[in-house]
């Protein structure tokens, strides 16, 4: 209960963990596709952990988190964030340790279930922030997004039917009452400076009654009972079960995206693909950008020009409203308004960077976000490594009103495009409000995007017909950087002659390689081994736009 909760301590889980009280988000080596080839999200795996106060629920949750250190994203969602908003009278009673925070009515179960359901379905959500110091829910909220595994912990985690319906696995931490009381006394005296008499009074009045009447009876709903101490074996079994469940949900479909259905429409038949008018100016710019002999300073200049042309073409298709104004000559002019309102840009790093410059030229002070999407070395599947979106997309209420320009220099297989679009949909942006801007797109990518998200618009300067699988040598004994230049330039590392892959493990090292890559998660293999990169390359294409634009 808030009157006797210690200040949460940050556990040592991972350098990629982030914390807010007991809520923990642990990210590791990137999030693999959490959706099917047709764009439908696959629900996260949810575990509910209940038990008495000081039974060890949080310790069990964090031990599972630590055991799943190779899983892309694990989230611990604590019941403590969902205490109801209190009146001043209730706050005064809480300050005097005279308010029962251990009763089910003290928890906003409706909001708790709503936020958990959003997270399970892959949607972004905002959870409340509760102050134990002031015994009140604050106005601020905590933004959460993206989890393969969600661990819910709290004394009432199994008490409400609407919560139990969302769990894939229900766990109860069973602990001896004397041990729970001893832990409470030690915790509250050492960390809260409270006296033993006050602790015992609170325990006898509220805590024990809650445990006997609500918490312990909820154990009948548990699939697994875990001891509150000496539980290493139980944790290992839980972690093994989770890894098996997640392996069964693993999605691999990059190669499927490069196999066109014979009945698939051609790019010209797809209504939402807009090819920028092929004027002599545009064709001249594309000739310069496609040429391997173009110097970097020329490439930057003409890439910026092209991005401006494509941005203007995209803006011409966005909704607008009429507006009458009076000119400087005192004459009424029938114009338009709202062309720049509610527009944001989201760049797929790095090759979306040139579009950010073009967008800023057209719309001053446009909000910009970014996504870092790279290829996973063993499979070639895209990995979502980082998401930084404007605050207007953190709330689904505002996200649904935004027009989002998704920026990338080229679409090859369409895998990175599908991932980026899925992220925006998870945040509440409607398909029809998403426009993908790109220098060039392959017909395979058009097919992939149209099949999954038919209402998303694509605006491009060129549509290339070929998507070839090529093999490129890799220098043995070096760390392999990911294909950071193009999120859609898929690449995977294999042994020569298609031998089995045998990696030593993930190493996060920024190092270049034969493809001119430089940033991201890499894999190291033994010196002397022969490896290749197998990649799908758009032809005629224009090479690695990110490398040509940013690297000298």
UniProtKB/TrEMBL annotation:
Domain Phosphoribosyltransferase: 276-470
Pfam (any one): UPRTase
Coiled coil location: none
GO aspect biological process, one term: UMP salvage
Domain Phosphoribulokinase/uridine kinase: 46-228
GO function term, MF aspect, one: cytidine kinase activity
InterPro entries membership: P-loop_NTPase, PRK/URK, PRTase-like, PRTase_dom, Uridine_kinase-like
Protein's pathway: Pyrimidine metabolism; UMP biosynthesis via salvage pathway; UMP from uridine: step 1/1; Pyrimidine metabolism; UMP biosynthesis via salvage pathway; UMP from uracil: step 1/1; Pyrimidine metabolism; CTP biosynthesis via salvage pathway; CTP from cytidine: step 1/3
EC number, as in UniProt: 2.7.1.48
Reaction equation(s) it catalyzes: cytidine + ATP = CMP + ADP + H(+); uridine + ATP = UMP + ADP + H(+)
CC cofactor: Mg(2+)
Keywords assigned: Allosteric enzyme, ATP-binding, Glycosyltransferase, GTP-binding, Kinase, Nucleotide-binding, Transferase
Chain positions covered by the region annotation Disordered: 1-21
Family as reported in the entry's similarity comment: Belongs to the uridine kinase family.
Cross-referenced NCBIfam families: PRK05480.1 (NF004018), udk (TIGR00235)
Name of this chain's protein: Uridine kinase
Source organism of the structure: Cutaneotrichosporon oleaginosum
């Amino acid at each position: 209960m808030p009157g006797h909760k210690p200040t949460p301590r940050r556990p040592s889980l991972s350098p990629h963990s982030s914390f807010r009280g007991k809520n923990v988000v642990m990210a590791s080596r990137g999030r693999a596709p959490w959706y099917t080839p047709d764009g439908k999200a696959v629900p996260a795996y949810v575990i509910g952990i209940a038990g008495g106060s000081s039974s060890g629920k949080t310790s069990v949750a964090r031990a599972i988190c630590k055991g799943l250190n190779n899983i892309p994203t694990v989230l611990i969602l604590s019941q403590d964030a969902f205490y109801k908003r209190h009146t001043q009278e209730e706050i005064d009673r809480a300050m005097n340790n005279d308010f029962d925070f251990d009763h089910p009515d003290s928890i906003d179960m409706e909001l708790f279930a709503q936020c958990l359901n959003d997270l399970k379905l892959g949607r972004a959500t905002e959870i409340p922030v509760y102050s134990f110091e002031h015994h009140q829910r604050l106005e601020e909220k905590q933004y959460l997004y993206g989890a393969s595994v969600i661990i819910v912990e709290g004394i009432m985690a199994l008490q409400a039917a609407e919560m139990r319906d969302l769990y894939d696995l229900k766990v109860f931490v069973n602990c001896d009452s004397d041990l729970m009381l001893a832990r409470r006394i030690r915790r509250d005296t050492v960390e809260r400076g409270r006296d033993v008499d006050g602790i015992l009074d609170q325990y006898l009045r509220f805590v024990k009654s809650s445990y006997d009447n609500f918490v312990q009876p909820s154990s009948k709903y548990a699939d697994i009972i875990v001891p509150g101490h000496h539980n290493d074996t139980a944790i290992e079994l839980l972690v093994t079960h989770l890894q098996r469940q997640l392996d069964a949900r693993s999605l691999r479909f990059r190669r499927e995206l490069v196999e066109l259905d014979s009945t698939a429409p051609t790019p010209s038949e797809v209504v939402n693909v807009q090819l920028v008018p092929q004027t002599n100016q545009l064709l001249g710019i594309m000739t310069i950008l496609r040429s391997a002999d173009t110097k970097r300073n020329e490439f930057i200049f003409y890439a910026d020009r092209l991005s401006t042309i494509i941005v203007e073409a995209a803006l011409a298709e966005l909704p607008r409203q009429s507006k009458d104004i009076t000119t400087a000559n005192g004459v009424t002019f029938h114009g338009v308004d709202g062309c720049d309102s509610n527009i944001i840009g989201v760049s797929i790093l790095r090759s979306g960077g040139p579009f950010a410059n073009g967008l800023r030229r057209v719309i001053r002070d446009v909000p910009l976000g970014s996504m870092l999407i790279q290829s996973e070395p063993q499979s070639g599947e895209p990995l979502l490594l980082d998401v930084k979106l404007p605050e207007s997309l953190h709330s689904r209420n505002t996200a649904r009103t935004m027009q989002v320009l998704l920026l990338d220099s080229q679409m090859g297989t369409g895998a990175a495009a599908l991932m980026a679009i899925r992220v925006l949909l998870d945040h509440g942006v409607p398909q029809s409000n998403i426009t993908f801007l790109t220098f060039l797109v392959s017909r395979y990518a058009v097919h992939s995007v149209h099949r999954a998200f038919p209402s998303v618009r694509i605006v491009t300067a060129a549509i290339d017909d070929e998507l070839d699988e090529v093999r490129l040598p890799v220098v043995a004994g070096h760390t392999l950087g990911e294909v950071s230049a193009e999120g859609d330039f898929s690449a995977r590392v294999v042994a020569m002659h298609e031998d089995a892959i045998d990696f030593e493990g993930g190493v996060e090292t920024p190092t270049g390689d034969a493809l001119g890559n430089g940033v991201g998660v890499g894999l190291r293999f033994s010196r002397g081994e022969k490896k290749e990169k197998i990649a799908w390359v758009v032809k005629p294409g224009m090479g690695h736009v990110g490398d040509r634009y940013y690297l000298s």
